[in-house]
Structure formats: C-alpha cells, structure tokens
UniProtKB/TrEMBL annotation, chain A:
It is a multi-pass membrane protein. Coiled coil: none annotated. It holds the Pfam family Alg6_Alg8. One of its GO terms (molecular function) is dolichyl pyrophosphate Glc1Man9GlcNAc2 alpha-1,3-glucosyltransferase activity. It comes from Ceratosolen solmsi marchali. Its main location: endoplasmic reticulum. It is found in: Endoplasmic reticulum membrane. The keyword Hydrolase does not apply. The keyword Transcription does not apply. The lineage of its organism: Eukaryota, Metazoa, Ecdysozoa, Arthropoda, Hexapoda. This is Alpha-1,3-glucosyltransferase. GO terms for biological process: protein N-linked glycosylation. Belongs to the ALG6/ALG8 glucosyltransferase family. GO terms for cellular component: endoplasmic reticulum membrane.
Automatic annotation (TrEMBL), chain B:
It is a multi-pass membrane protein. Its EC number is 2.4.1.-. It is an enzyme of class 2 (transferase). The chain crosses the membrane at residues 142-171, 192-211, 217-244, 275-298, 346-367, 374-393, 413-430, 437-455, 493-516, 528-547. Belongs to the ALG6/ALG8 glucosyltransferase family. The gene is LOC105362256. Keywords: Endoplasmic reticulum, Glycosyltransferase, Membrane, Transferase, Transmembrane, Transmembrane helix. Pathway: Protein modification; protein glycosylation. This is Alpha-1,3-glucosyltransferase.
Length: 511, 563
C-alpha cells in the first residue's frame, strides 16, 4: 500500500515536470546541443576505432566509451527522425525535428533519474512525508532543468545512475545489493569521468562496510575487483589499441584553470583577489612592463594570475586530494554504524564539493553533483536542510550566466524564487524552523539582485564595456556562499555536533 | 507542535463560536506567512507556465503579408502613436483599415498608445508609421511577451487572488468553517481554486502563445464580479464598464450583470423602495460617467463616433470566419447557410435565437437572484452567445471558460469536463499558430494537476492519518472528507464512462489533427470534426447549466450590505 501511494505520487510529479520540460523545447540551446549532435554523427558514421580520433568538428568526443555507446544507440533512433542530423559534415544543423528529437531524448533519459529517486527514497526515506519532500526537492530541481532542458546536457540521466548506486551501496545488510551499487558506480564512471572525484568516497565506503567485514577481506575484495574491472574492460575493450589517444581526449590538461564562465570556487576567489591586487600594484607602479602590456590589452589572460602564483594542474590535484583525506578518514574510522549510510552520502557530497572548490578546469554545472545527493539528507536533518537552502540557491544562481539570452531573464527569476519558496515551505513543514542566520538570509536574498544586475542593469550602465565584470561578480559572490557552506558543512561533518544531537533527540522522542 | 495548535484551535471553537474568529495572534501570523508563501508558490508556477509558453511561436510568426494577431497588436501601437485620436478608427491614407484596423474599444487603443510610447523608447523601429509593417525580431518578441506578462501581473492575477481569498469564503460557507482543514501537505481549498483558475491553459495559450491581451478584460471582469458579490454595485459596474471598453466581447456577460443588479434592487421584502432607487441611480450614474470619460475624445464629432461604433460591430464580416464550435458552423456542414440567406437575414436569425436562448436564465436570475445563480447565469449567457450569435471567434470560448472557472469549486467534475473541451475546441487555431506542442503539454499539465487536486484524496488522507490522528477520530470530519472527496464515486458509473469516452475522443482527435495530414478531398476535415465534436458538448453543457441554474437555491445566504 505504501509503495503504491509513493509510486503514484512519483509518477504524477514526474508527469507534471515532464510537461514543463516539453514546454521548454523551443528555448535557447547552447553549443552543447551541437556537441551532442556531432557525437551522434560520429558514432553513427565512423567505425568504432575512429570515434576518438575524428577531428572533423572542434567538438570531439570527450566522454568515456559507455556514453559513446549511448549516443550510438540514440543515433539508430535518429535515423528514423531526420537523416540530415547524422551527416558528419553538417555542422550546426538544428532543424525542428532535430531539436525535438534531441530534447526528447533528454526528457526520456530522465526516466532513469526518476527511478534513481525511487531507489534512493526506498533506502533513505522512512515516512511517506519524507519521500514527498525528497521527490519535490530532487525531481523539481531547477538546476537540472536549466542545464539539461535549456542549456542541453544529460545530467539527469547520469545523476539518476548515481542515485541508484548510492541507494544500492548503502544497503549494508545485503552483500548482493552492495555489489550492485559498485557495479552501477563503475558504469557511471564509464559514462562521465567527472564522477572520478567522488570515487575515493566509494572506495573507502566499500572497503569499510563490505570488504573489512566478517573476516572475508580477500574473497570480497577480489569479487569487487572483478565486477569493476569487468565494466571497465567492457567499456574500454574496443579501444584497447589506442588507449592513450582516448585518455588524452578524456583528460585535456591544456585547458585553463578557470572555465570560460569562472565556476564559483576557490580559484575564482583567487582570481578576484588577484585582479584587485593587480589594480593596487598598478597604482603604486610595482608591476613589470610585460604584465602591464598584457593588462592594457583589455582581455586579461584567464589562465594565469598577475600577482599570486598560478596553480598548476598537479598542485590542484594534490590540494584536492589532501582536502578529501579528512572526510575519508572520518568515514573509515567512524564506528558509529547507526547512521553511517547517511555519513557515506555526506562524504560523497564533501568529495564533490572539494573537487568543485579546488579542481582543475571545473564547470559550474558540477555543483549539481553535490546538490542532488544533499536532497536526500535535507529531508531528515535540520542542519542539512539549512545547508541545502544556501547551497542550492547559490549554486543555481551561479548556473544562470549559462543562459545569456535576454529573454530568459524572467524565466530565471521565476524559477529561482519558486525553488526557494518551495524548499522553505517543504522544509519548514519537516522541521519547525530551519534556522538560517540573519546574515545568511541577507546573503541569499541578495542573490537575485546579482542576476538582475548581470542581465539587465550592467547593460544599461556600461552598454558593451567591461563584459567580464558581471560574470566575475556573479562567480565571486556565489563563490563566497559556496565556500561558506563548504567550510561549515565540513566542520560539522568532522566534529558532528548537530548530527549526534539530532540522533539523540530522535531517540528521546521515540522513547 | 502544529498538531497541538490545531487541536487547541478546535477546542476553542467548540467552546464558543463567537471566539472562533479571534484565533491566538501568534498562530495567525505564522499561518499568514505560510499562506502567503503557498499562494506565491502557486502564482509562481502559473507564471512559469505562462512564460514557458511565451517561447513558442505567436500567430502569424514569419508569415507575410498579413501575419496575425501579434502584428495586429503591434500595428495598433504604430497607429495610435503616430495618428491623432480622431483618425484611429477612420479609414485614411495613413490608416488602412483593411490591414488590421483597430476594431477594439477605446481602452485597448489607449493601452496600445501607452505601449507605443514605451516601444518608441526601447525599440523605435518597431513603431515607425508605414515602415514598421511586419516588424519582427527576437527582442521585439521579448518586449511584446513581457508586456502581456506585466498586464497579467497587474490585472488578472491580483483579481484572481482577491477572488480566491476574499470572495470564495462568502460563496462557499464550508470553506470558512473549515479554515484549518488541511489538504495535501498544508494546502487548502482556496489554494486549489487559485491554482485551477491560474493554470487554465486556454487563456495562457491565447495570451502568451497566440498573442492577445485577454487577461486585461477578463481580469477586470473578475474584479467586477467580486465587487458585485460583496454588494458594492457601483464599483462592480465601474469595473464591468472598463472590461467592456477593453473588449466589446464582454457583452456576453452584460445581461446577467444587468439582471443581477436589477434583481437585487427590486423593491420587496428584502429592501425598501428608497434604498433600491438610491442604489440603482448610483449604478447608472457610475456607468454613464465612466462611459462618458472613456469615450470623450470620440464624442466631438458625429462621424468619428459612427466610424468607431461601426468598427466595433462589423456586420459585414459574415456569420463566422474560420471553423468555430458553434451551432451555425455545425448546421453549415449539412445545410449551407450563406447560400440561402443574406448577411442581414442571418444577423436577424442570430439575434432572435440568441435572445430566446438567453431569456430563461436571465428571467430566472431577475426574479430569484442569488450569487450562485448569478455565476450560472454568466455561464449560460456567454455560452448562448457563443453558440448562437453573429461573428463568433474560437477564442470567445474563453469568455465562457472564465465564469466556469469561478464556479469550479461548486461543481468540479462537470466544470472540469467543460474546461477541457473548451481548450480542445481551440485546437485548429492553435495548430495554425504552431502551438501544438504547447497545447499538449499545457493541457496535460492542467488535467493532471486538477484531477490530483480535486478528485483524489488518498495522498492527503494518508498524510493526514499520520499527521493528525486525533482530528481524524472525529467522525463528522471523516464524513465531510469523504463527501468532498468522492466526486468520482458519487457521480455514478455511467457519467464516468461517458466522461472517459469523451476524453478519449478529445485525445484521438487531438492526435489526429496534430500528426496526420487531412485527405486532399476534405482539407478541413479535422478542424470541422473538432468543431462539431465540441459544439455537441457545448450544447449539452448549455442545457446542463441551465438546469443547474433552475435547481440552485434562490435564498440570499447573507445580507448584502455588510457595513
């Protein structure tokens, strides 16, 4: 009876959001649309061993092989819709049918996301009310709506698989389920390698709650290894002859540290500080002549700092890795098994956030990797709920510069306000108060002003001058919020004040 | 905590009904804030739907030489901005009436003038006389869509919110009694009414897809009905005159308003003669003065006045243009009306038949006025006009849809049925505008959300079971929930089957006309089928709503002038 009701709820909410997604079909789409169309063409026309070699378009295939196979299967359906979109030389082709088809594939792929939500809810949500809140927070996430259904990507599908694997891997009682979780995570890694960043959390968790139990370490470790290796062989097998070429496509270190839009992370803050310092330096004439020349050129080189030392890829990896270690350490040595699946999710979120904060060439979309799993926790813990509200509203604001056309401005504002109001209503319903401090409220309330400035006011004041200023302002302001939530979330995770208290309180209430 | 508060309030109520309104202050403000948040969430969702549809094509998008209603609205801005008032409605070398001449009343013209002034600052090229014909651009589309959104935010949405929160408790005594009754999560019945009215896809598709400003006249109409319900006749008639002077189609609603005001102010047991006279004089003065002010610039010259009036009521344009779901178009399938009668004869036939169809409900309203009857009479009158009058557009069904939406909470099932058919009847127009995808998505959204809100309770009951078990124990409450909830069950299995069949027909015809190409022999096959199918429905609905009106109670439940 209970699953019947929850499934019915899920189906209805899914249908409603699907209607909205369909309404969004004619909106603006980014170059990612062309990227995916090109991949359809590549996988359809070329033999398998040329997929990662072809350079006919600048949008080369840079996702792992399983995703390429996914595109391959889509291209088979595409032949029925519009044959021209599969022409490999037909760059920037976007007929009505092509657009309809590509958008529909994203909408349909979101079924996986809905299924992932269902799985995660069965593992983590104790009551039907929790389930509803979780569904409304995750399925109606506007970040996904923006990135997938306007900007164009397949994140919903990928995050769905992430949720499935989290749900399976969290069922400690069943060995079979944990292995399934590992399998799905291996699949996810072979769909998009950005999830490598959260692999340490998975490794630690599987080691701790699966391998190191019942004194069967070697047997279980081999079993796990076989499953994961199997998936990788299946995926990379056909490309074994030119593996270095594939890997060089997957990990392009030639790109700059900051992606074109400045993801709101630590490096964005550094870049902001650098700019400020360079202005001061210039005033006191402390700059070298070479640097002055590059500054007066108008476009400041984005991949090197003026005053501060420019980080190298190795440096960013080392710092990311070092900062994840405390989280892994706590997960591994935490003997309190009562709430450990939730700690596993927390560890995933922290790994995701750490890589977002300090990673090399981070996309602002990567924040969704942290926001979606946080939905699971926000339904049951007031502290998580508080962080969720800050992180989601900041994260979504930082996505808005992706949609630069003017006519999308009202849509952004409507979506942002709705999501904020909705999460406040739902979470207030759950916990009597969410307890945002007044300065946090002020900070969140000021976010839409940034968006309005970025889209409207800047153009009125400066017309076309200083094009980087609104973007820099957005990412620095959002970077502050994300760093803030990252720091207090990490602190809370390591020292566990509110979690323990809430668990104790729960026990008291139950008694 | 919340449970305890609710229980407290309930016990308070039992103790003394007088104290029921003086809920403890803390609870009141807390509820007030969450209520504001909930309604803003619904409004936000409504705005989202509206704005999503605005990305779809408008009527005549990239179709020279005549374009569509979008170009008409732009052209009116151009005309009103560049020509003196005296030439707005008259044919001249600068104002070719054959090309989308102004044919709406003065307030529309003033509105166009205002927009024209804004446009001349934002995008001067779009309102240059003669040279701007067929002006289309991405930013201009954004400007036009934004102008609709702003009017919606200023007129329609406030009117609906006011109706749902102030007028609904007067209309439906149950709502007031059970203010604390919680539906899904913490939403209440008036939130559902608000959502239903705002999610209605017909209005959204026409205003934000096809492109028109129906939200203004319909919003003013809701304001006028609200004022009439509150007993302030003068304000009500003032708003109604504004609505009428924005779009002359509001005449569809004029007779019930007239008879309602007259019926309420008939001297008798309820009211003494003097009070009635005073009220009536007040109303007539308001109407005359408002009209005079609005029409003042056109009253200077007889010719200008006559030109304007002739533009508003064009007798020469024929009995119907495209396929409309009314009786004449349906009869025309079998018997070609235009070959057998002249235009004037047809106009006379229309006049007589419309009057006959209107009389019963109008007289009933006049002799036994009540609020419920008033709403039903509005439905009946506009529906009779739509089915039988001269020169009807597909879009005019919105004028019927709106009173049905206002009546929704009394009779959700049949109103819902009607609303779905009303959107379906506009399908040929929407397909022509390239709004097929938007039609399917928004109608599905409406059907799912409405049937979830009104016809299903399992979720809310389940939540309630968990949430407030104590309240559930009261048997009376349980009964009431069952009563309000089981619409599907109580309406009988035959009705259910009929309803499902009817919706299946809608689905099949929608898919056919959306995807299939009509056979060469009958190019108009699908539009015609859609019109005839909806016309049959509308006719049956006319009979049904008339029957409902005669059955409705005529006793005025509350005193009118509550001061």
């Amino acid at each position: 009876m209970k699953t019947y009701i929850s499934d019915k709820f899920l189906v209805k909410t899914f249908l409603l959001i699907t209607c909205i997604k369909i309404l969004l079909i004619p909106t603006y789409h980014s170059t990612d649309f062309e990227v995916h169309r090109n991949w359809l063409a590549i996988t359809h026309n070329l033999p398998v061993n040329e997929w990662y070699i072809s350079e006919k378009s600048q949008w080369t295939l840079d996702y792992p092989p399983l995703f390429a196979w996914f595109e391959y299967s889509l291209s088979k359906i595409a032949t029925l819709i519009d044959f021209k979109m599969l022409n490999i030389n037909n760059h920037n082709y976007a007929s009505v049918q092509t657009k309809l088809f590509q958008r529909c594939t994203v909408i349909c792929a979101d079924l996986v996301f809905a299924y992932g939500i269902r799985e995660a809810a069965q593992t983590f949500c104790k009551s039907i009310q929790n389930f509803m809140v979780f569904v409304l927070l995750s399925l109606y996430n506007i970040g996904l709506l923006i990135v997938d259904h306007i900007h164009f990507q397949y994140n919903g599908f990928l995050l769905g698989i992430l949720l499935i694997s989290i749900a399976k891997a969290s069922k400690i009682s069943s060995q079979n389920e944990i292995l399934q979780g590992a399998f799905w995570f291996a699949v996810l890694l072979n769909l998009k390698h950005i999830y490598l960043y959260i692999a340490p959390a998975y490794g630690t968790w599987l080691l701790r709650s699966y391998c190191l139990k019942d004194n069967q370490f070697i047997y279980r470790f081999i079993k796990l290894g076989v499953i994961v290796t199997f998936v990788f062989i299946l995926s990379f097998g056909p490309f074994i002859n030119h593996l270095p070429q594939v890997l060089s496509r997957l990990f392009p270190f030639k790109r700059g540290i900051i992606h074109a839009y400045w993801a709101p992370n630590a490096w964005a803050l550094c870049a902001g500080a650098d700019k400020l310092l360079s202005v001061i330096w210039k005033k006191f004439n402390w700059l070298d002549n070479v640097k002055i020349a590059s500054m007066s050129g108008g476009l400041v080189q984005e991949d090197s700092f003026m005053i501060l030392p420019t980080p190298t890829p190795i440096f960013t990896f080392v710092i990311t890795f070092l900062l994840t270690i405390p989280a892994l350490w706590t997960l591994f040595f935490n003997t309190n098994t009562y709430n450990s699946p939730k700690n596993f999710v927390r560890c995933i979120i922290l790994c995701g956030l750490t890589s977002f904060m300090f990673g090399w060439h981070v996309h602002e979309k990567a924040i969704l990797t942290a926001i979606i799993p946080l939905c699971i926790l926000a339904t049951s813990n007031a502290f998580d709920a508080r962080i969720f509200i800050i992180l989601s509203s900041v994260g979504h604001t930082s996505l808005f510069p992706l949609l630069y056309p003017q006519e999308l401005m009202p849509l952004k504002l409507i979506l942002w306000f709705m999501y904020l109001i909705k999460s406040i209503i739902l979470l207030k319903n759950q916990f009597d108060c969410i307890g945002l401090y007044s300065y946090e409220q002020f900070y969140v309330g000021f976010l839409p002003v940034i968006t309005i400035y970025e889209t409207v006011i800047h153009r009125i004041i400066f017309s076309d001058k200083l094009p980087f200023l609104p973007l820099a302002l957005t990412s620095i302001y959002c970077g502050l919020g994300i760093s803030y939530s990252y720091i207090i979330y990490y602190y809370e995770y390591l020292f566990k004040n509110s979690y323990c208290n809430s668990e104790i309180n729960k026990k008291k209430v139950e008694q | 905590m919340r449970d305890r508060e609710n229980v407290m309030i309930n016990t308070n109520r039992k103790d003394s009904s007088d104290r029921a309104n003086s809920v403890p202050k803390e609870v009141g403000t807390k509820d007030g804030i969450s209520e504001i948040m909930q309604s803003s969430l619904i409004v936000g969702l409504a705005l989202l739907l509206r704005w999503c549809i605005s990305y779809h094509p408008y009527s005549g998008d990239g179709k020279p030489p005549m374009f569509g209603d979008y170009e008409a609205q732009r052209h009116w801005q151009e005309i009103t901005l560049n020509l003196p008032i005296s030439q707005w409605y008259s044919n001249s070398s600068d104002n070719d009436l054959q090309y989308w001449g102004l044919d709406y009343p003065p307030i529309t013209a003033y509105h166009s003038l205002l927009l024209g002034h804004v446009a001349s600052v934002v995008d001067p090229d779009s309102v240059k006389l003669h040279r701007s014909r067929g002006y289309e651009s991405r930013t201009h589309k954004y400007f036009m869509r934004l102008s609709v959104l702003i009017m919606d935010l200023l007129v329609f949405i406030p009117a609906v919110v006011y109706f749902a929160f102030t007028i609904l408790p007067i209309l439906d005594s149950k709502i007031k009694k059970h203010q604390e009754k919680k539906e899904f999560l913490t939403f209440k019945k008036r939130h559902f009414v608000l959502a239903t009215i705002l999610f209605y896809p017909g209005l959204i598709l026409i205003d934000y897809g096809h492109f028109q400003y129906n939200c203004v006249s319909l919003g003013l109409f809701i304001a006028s009905v609200s004022a009439l319900f509150q007993g302030s006749m003068a304000i009500g008639s003032f708003f109604f005159v504004l609505a009428l002077n924005y779009k002359q189609m509001e005449l569809y609603h004029a007779l019930p308003c007239f008879f309602y005001i007259l019926g309420i102010n008939t001297p008798g047991k309820r009211k003494p003669l003097l009070a009635c006279l005073r009220s009536l004089i007040c109303v007539s003065l308001t109407v005359i003065i408002t009209f005079a002010v609005i029409w003042a610039p056109f009253l200077t010259d007889k010719k200008i006045f006559m030109d304007t009036v002739l533009r508003l009521f064009p007798l020469t344009r024929g009995i119907f243009e495209d396929k409309v779901a009314n009786i004449w178009c349906t009869i025309n399938v079998l018997y070609k009306l235009r070959n057998n009668f002249s235009n004037l004869q047809l106009a006379q036939i229309c006049l007589v038949s419309t009057t006959v169809a209107l009389l019963p409900s109008s007289l009933d309203l006049f002799f036994r006025p009540s609020r419920e009857k008033f709403l039903l009479a509005l439905i009946n009158s506009s529906l009779s006009f739509f089915l039988l009058s001269f020169q009807v557009h597909e879009k005019s069904i919105l004028l019927v849809g709106l009173p049905v939406l206002l009546h929704f909470h009394k009779d959700p099932f049949s109103c819902f049925w009607f609303l779905v058919i009303s959107v379906f009847s506009m399908l040929p127009l929407l397909i022509k505008d390239g709004l097929c995808v938007a039609y399917f998505a928004s109608l599905t959204f409406f059907i799912i959300s409405v049937s979830w809100m009104w016809f299903e309770s399992k979720i809310s009951q389940f939540v309630k079971n968990k949430e407030d078990k104590q309240e559930e124990k009261q048997t009376s409450r349980k009964l009431k929930i069952k009563k309000s909830v089981s619409v599907w069950a109580s309406s009988g299995i035959y009705i259910n089957i009929l309803f499902s069949l009817s919706l299946l027909g809608v689905l099949v015809l929608s898919v056919c006309s959306g995807l299939l190409k009509a056979p060469k022999k009958y190019p108009d096959l699908f539009p015609l089928l859609v019109s005839v199918y909806s016309c049959i429905h509308f006719f049956l609905f006319l009979v049904y709503f008339n029957y409902k009106q005669f059955c409705a109670t005529s006793i005025l439940t509350r005193k009118f002038k509550v001061k």
